[in-house]
Specification:
This protein is an alpha+beta fold. The chain folds into 3 domains: 15-176, Alpha-Beta Plaits, CATH 3.30.70.270; 178-248, Orthogonal Bundle (DNA polymerase, domain 1); 255-363, Dna Ligase, domain 1. Helix content is 36%, strand content 20%. It has helices at 26-34, 59-62, 72-78, 89-106, 132-147, 159-166, 182-188, 199-207, 213-216, 221-228, 231-238, 269-290, 322-336, and strands spanning 18-23, 43-45, 56-57, 83-85, 110-114, 117-121, 151-156, 174-176, 255-266, 294-302, 308-314, 343-353, 361-363. Strands 5-6-1-7-8 form a 5-stranded mixed beta sheet. The chain has a 5-stranded mixed beta sheet with strand order 11-10-12-9-13, with helices on one face. A hairpin with a 2-residue loop joins strand 5 (110-114) and strand 6. Helix 4 (89-106) runs antiparallel to helix 5, helix 10 crosses helix 11 (231-238) and helix 12 packs antiparallel against helix 13 (322-336). The longest helix has 22 residues, at 269-290. The protein is globular and about 60 Å long. 42% of the residues are buried. This is DNA polymerase IV.
Length: 370
């Protein structure tokens, strides 16, 4: 049954009921569901023994340190018994559509973040109980009954807290943070567990003596900005549970990208990779500067006939290492260079960012690298 969807927004108050649903090891779980021989075994979706990158890893593989966006050779070294499974994004999208139909049966205010993750505002739900906690439980039960896959959920009065909560009891768990519980919860939360604070920034905070939300809460907004730059004002708000972002059903995917048109067409794959590495460095530097990483990488190639080809790859976790982003970009190029053997333009972008960053950012670069 297809449910009618509207684009209305709920009022922004502490009475809002926000759910964040995150599927557990989605790509890998779909493959294990469809192939009983893979159940209980460490698997990596995407890549191969010798090349490529991991799109997603099962929980059995994560025990060994295998993770999304990791080069396949590294994953194989960490887990010699790792089983590589070819990705099937058409199948994952089909399952994702089933899950979203469940979401839309409860509310029109659904903000998908990726195939396996979404925010829901159930302040005024279409059906089910009044309690957001009971709605989240019902949604998880319906997802399992429909897809035989498990989901984790976070429930709170704003998006930030719901997102953080959904990670607390993974996999196949749920965490509820009530308004009166939020100050104490955030005061005790390690800075590395705050959504939007990456590993590099967390390590820097540790060196400065800030280890929990309570430590950060001692700083004024000006002090936050002085220590951490523009993003410090964001940190000031989240440690106080201040997040008035609405669940936006019309959300545009924000991205950071760079592209370059070359004076002479390029036909050498080696030269393409060299040029692509340079673009990746520019994009990654921007992401690091803002401590805002993403999960989807898109390669853009324009032929001498001005035909544009784009290819994307999504991952279950943010890409936080320059080498990982290079490997992903190069792999996308290898997969498509036969289709576009000569290019006059190359571009790379990262989307599905941790934090919405206003309009999409296209880095301004000169016509051709000097």
């Amino acid at each position: 049954m297809k449910w009618k969807r509207k684009a209305d927004r709920a009022p922004l108050t502490r009475d809002r009921k926000i759910i964040h649903i995150d599927m557990d090891a989605f790509f890998a779980s779909v493959e294990q569901r469809d192939n009983p021989d893979l159940r209980g075994k460490p698997i990596a979706v995407g890549g191969s023994k010798l090349r490529g990158v991991v799109a997603a890893a099962s929980y059995e593989a994560r025990v060994f340190g295998v993770r999304s966006a990791m080069p396949s050779v590294t994953a194989r070294r960490l887990c010699p018994q790792l089983i590589f499974v070819k990705s099937n994004f058409d199948k994952y999208r089909e399952v994702s559509d089933q899950i979203r139909d469940i979401f839309y049966s409860y509310t029109d205010l659904v903000e998908p973040l990726s195939l396996d993750e979404a925010y829901l505002d159930v302040t005024e739900s279409k059906r089910g109980p009044v309690s957001a906690t009971l709605i989240a439980q019902a949604i998880r039960q319906e997802i399992y009954a429909t897809t035989q896959l498990t989901a984790s959920a976070g429930v709170s009065f704003n998006k930030f807290l719901a997102k953080v909560a959904s990670d607390i009891n993974k996999p196949n768990g749920m965490k509820v943070i009530m308004p009166e519980e939020a100050p104490a919860f955030l005061a005790d939360l390690p800075v590395e567990d705050f959504h939007g604070i990456g590993k590099v920034t967390a390590a820097r905070m540790h060196k400065m003596g800030y280890r929990t939300g309570g430590d950060l809460r001692q700083l004024s907004e000006m002090e936050m900005a002085q220590r951490f730059g523009k993003v410090g004002r964001h940190y000031y708000r989240i440690v106080r549970a201040l997040d008035d972002r609405p669940v936006n059903p019309n959300r545009n995917r924000k991205s950071v990208g760079a592209e370059r048109t070359y004076a002479d067409d390029i036909s050498s794959p080696a030269v393409m990779k060299e040029k692509l590495d340079w673009l990746v460095q520019k994009v990654f530097s921007y992401l690091v500067e803002r401590d805002n990483f993403g999960r989807t990488v898109t390669l853009k190639m324009k032929s001498p006939e001005f035909v544009i080809h784009t290819r994307s790859r999504s991952f279950s976790g943010e890409i936080r290492k320059l080498q990982d982003l290079k490997e992903i970009a190069r792999h996308l190029l290898d997969e498509n260079v036969e289709e576009v053997p000569v290019v006059r333009l190359l571009g790379i972008s990262v989307s599905n960012l941790e934090r919405e960053a206003g309009d999409a950012v296209q880095l301004l670069l000169p016509f051709e690298e000097e």
